[in-house]
Amino acid sequence: MVGRRLRSWGYTALTASTSEEGLRIAERQQPDLILLDVLLPAMKGREVCARLKASPATRHIPVIFLTAMGLPDHIRAGLDLGADDCIVKPFEPEDLKDRITVCLKRARVANGGNGATDG
Hints:
Blueprint: H1 2-8, H2 19-29, E1 34-37, H3 45-54, E2 63-67, H4 72-80, E3 85-88, H5 93-110
Parallel strand pairs: 1-2, 2-3
């Protein structure tokens, strides 16, 4: 559902069925941004984020957690792992769009204007 919404906004959406597949896609495709669910089967989203941020190949990619666990401690834990933002489900699509825009702009600035693109 999120992938369809992203495509309707003009983004290219890469999806993964497993955490391991997501890590491989991130390394090979170098996406501009990663939307990462916290509750995943097998490897949890927090571990995926930690691995992304530990790797020189993927540490620069902004990560936004999508989570149903909206307690401040849960959100802080995700941000402490290096996530750039955390959106609590359910969320309004326009809120997601706004947060993506902010993260992409922040990444561009951090990369000297040569970073993430909007598509």
